[in-house]
From TrEMBL, chain A:
Name the UniProt record assigns to this protein: Uncharacterized protein
The species this protein was found in: Falsiroseomonas tokyonensis
Record's keyword terms, sorted: Membrane, Transmembrane, Transmembrane helix
Residue ranges of the TM segments: 47-69, 90-108
UniProtKB/TrEMBL annotation, chain B:
Domain Cytochrome oxidase subunit I profile, chain residue ranges per copy: 35-533
Organism: Falsiroseomonas tokyonensis
InterPro entries, A to Z: Cyt_c_oxase-like_su1_dom, Cyt_C_Oxase_1, Cyt_c_Oxase_su1_BS
Transmembrane segments: 55-75, 102-125, 137-158, 182-206, 218-244, 280-299, 306-326, 338-363, 375-397, 409-433, 445-467, 487-508, 592-615, 621-641, 673-696, 716-735, 747-771, 791-809, 830-848
Protein name per UniProt: Cbb3-type cytochrome c oxidase subunit I
Amino acid sequence: MQVVGFSPMLNAIAGLIVWAAHFLLVYGAQATVCWRGLAGATLWGQPLVPAIVLGLTALGLVAVALIGGRAWRRLHSGLASQEGEEQSQFTLWMSLAVTLMAALAMVWEAVPVLILPPCG
Amino acid sequence: MTPPDTAGDALRHDAPLPNPLPRPPDELPRLERIWRSPRGWAFPWTEVNNNWIGVLYLGTAGLFCVLAVILSLLMRAQLAVPGNDLLDQETYNQVFTTHGTMMMFLFAVPAVEALGVYLLPAMLAARDLPFPRLSAYAYWAYAVGGLGFFTSLFFGLAPNGGWFMYPPLTSHEYSPGINADFWLLGIGFIEISAIAGAVEIVVGILRNRAPGMTLARMPLFAWAMLVFAVMIIFAFPAVIWATVLLELERAFDWPFFLPDRGGDPLLRQHLFWFFGHPEVYIIFLPAAGAVSMIVPAMVQTRMVGYGLVAMALVATGFLSFGLWVHHMYATGIPSLSLAFFSGASFAVSVPTGIQVFAWIATIASGKPKLHVPMLFVFGFLFIFVLGGLTGVMVAIVPFDWQAHDTYFIVAHLHYVLIGGMVFPLLAGLYYWAPSAAGWRLSVRLGKWVFWLLFLGVNLTFFPMHISGLIGMPRRVWTYPEGMGLEVWNMLSTASAAVSALGVLLLLVDLARNFRMSPGGPADNPFNAATLEWLPQGNYAARSIPRITSREPLWDQPDLAEQVRQGRHFLPGTVTGLRETLVTSPVEARPQYVAIIPGPAWAHFIAALCTAGFFLSLTVKLLWLAGIFGTVAVSAILYWLWTGTDLGPVVDRADIGGGLCLPVYVSGPDSVSWWAMVVLLLVDGTVFACLGFTHAFLWLSNGDAQWPPPGMGVPEVAFPLGSLALLAGCAGLLWLAGRLLRQGRARAMGGVVLLALPLFLLALGLDLHAVWQAGIRPTLHAFGAATFANQFWQGLHGLMVATMALYLAARAFAGLIDPVRRITFDNVRIFWLYALAQAAAGLCLTHLLPRALGTG
């Protein structure tokens, strides 16, 4: 079932959906680890909470890079136009801009893990 | 039936105008007759047109604002001198709680929603929003219910636990009266109203734009309202669920928030602020959108950074959901968790900064004229930026620990809300009043209003930063002498009186100079660029313009005259009913002509009874609530039966430019399908909050208490049985769809009546399973959470039963066939959702304790 206009709108906000997933996973994982008294636990020899947070952040950054890269290529492929339901220049541009914002937010949220104790 | 992708050449900017002159002589009179407002005593109760409902809505929000301002003056009078006894402690508690609750729920959200209802159709050149009766229903439920809520103050029954109603203060033990219930149930209808409005606005903006008004050409106010409405869809469910839980705890002793039985008061804080923080942006974004419309008109130049501002609106919409714990810095949550939210709080200031710089750049690139709206925009920038800066201060965790629960926070939030919402709204009032009244409000009075409010607000709230830093706590009815607080409080009180004078002058201006006259003198006094300044009637623009730029009135000379002459699309009516053009969501290509309902009584009666239902529940008159509830549902069913799903009244509609469109579309391209999907997003978000409740209480209790000793997990045969019944029900729904495609509508109705008992049986079986396993809602939070799921599923059982019976009745009445099938589609989508939700509920009850706990 194809809904006209759905996929370009979804693409336009995809970066921020990645941000939302990253935010909930990072916060949920850290809260669970701390509430379960696993502050000192390790994963492959690394402290657990920083490993999870940085791992998820790396994944998130890769995801927004892929989304942003795809939008960039389409935007410069000559297919995009001002008039075209599925390849609108504006939604592609929005998709790209939004990934930058999402990447910035993810990095800002993750950096404290390098400084603060995991559950203190 | 799906619409063909037409449009083609008719939308090109160099194509000839869609309709030739001269127009048939009876075309315009017919359009005017169909859109005429009801006359005599039926007005305004039965009116649904957005021009009238929007202005009524805005006026009512203004009334609630004035009432809440009066409450704030009472508070300031009490705090003018130390040890004052004007208001006693209990009355003061009720006054500040009602002030906050009214400002947030009865003024701020409804006011911006009202602005959307009033402006959007004209701005998008739609004849009306797609579901006018829904807007009218939302308005009346809000107006009547809100007045009922306010009167609780006169009986000493107003809520007194602060606008966020934290337990344990608001639990039954510490708040045994019905004051708290007035908040919990009294605000219920506001949440329904807000969501109804949000459904209307999302669908309206995405599907009812002028042909050629692509997303890239959409006015920034529409972008802001789109983000606003989507945020309501994801934020309000959390407060609805928090409200449901607290009311269940108070009414039936289900201990969600009581730690001695496994509950956790922080659960309420999480749910409330998951709504409460986005709420600030829900209020601010439409105001920012309004500013982005007013500034270009005031300086007569195009908005700088249009794309960036649109992106900033969308990004704010998302990021503001990652801020809720910054209201909970002082609750003992680990500092790394707080740092995530601190990071997100800093991140959200980036898109807000983008907007502020875009406005400054726009002002700098044009020639600002100091009209009254522009004064308010400058006031907004000054006050809001100060509020934003103190916001960055309190986003820093250690600073927040010092300022928490002091007047510094009171100062910050009033700077943000008055600066970010009230000043833009007043700018909007002075800017858009001519579009409703045909002439401007007074320039002289407007300048007085501005200066009184600007000075009054700053001198009221700036001193509060200082009294807060000295240590004056929020929500306390008095303070002692000798702490250095006297001078700051007296200054705040005196300046509040100055602001009140400003409000009074505004009312004088409105009373003297504002008279509704839709279809009155066409005027564009500020030479603005967007479509709400086209000549308007109740039917909005005479013909629906073809748009080729973001600033059509600047770029398409003679557009106003062409539209007025009827040379653009749909210059009259094709069905003899009220109708509007439905376009595609991204590119705004015409898809079909939708028939929309006109004046009626049913939605009005339904709204009165909805408000009556909640108010009678509050005062525990269950029999009266039963009567109101039944009448409300019956009125809604009557409204649906007579006013919706009319089918293809005519085969094809010629709207001009060679475009021949259907007048009835079902499936994923119909606006009705979109509205149902948006509603399900609301529903799904509530269910996600239910899942969060389970996960949070499990974490807070530990594995050994999930389930606690004495409660078991039901035998696995029970959930398997329920699943089989749900699957059977889904199978029958598939069969019903097949029968309808074959044209056997009555057989479809029969199958639907077979499917209903299967669904109800599945829900009943699970209730039985839970009960026989010894799970009780009052003994422990585990039981309470389990029964919260039963409650939610049962509610859906009731809704599906109503919808299924309605569908079967329509099928047997011959009102459904393979073409005319929107009723069937909507019931089926909702029902399938309810099946999936029931299956997910089974996982919560049966799988989660097995996977996580010791059960």
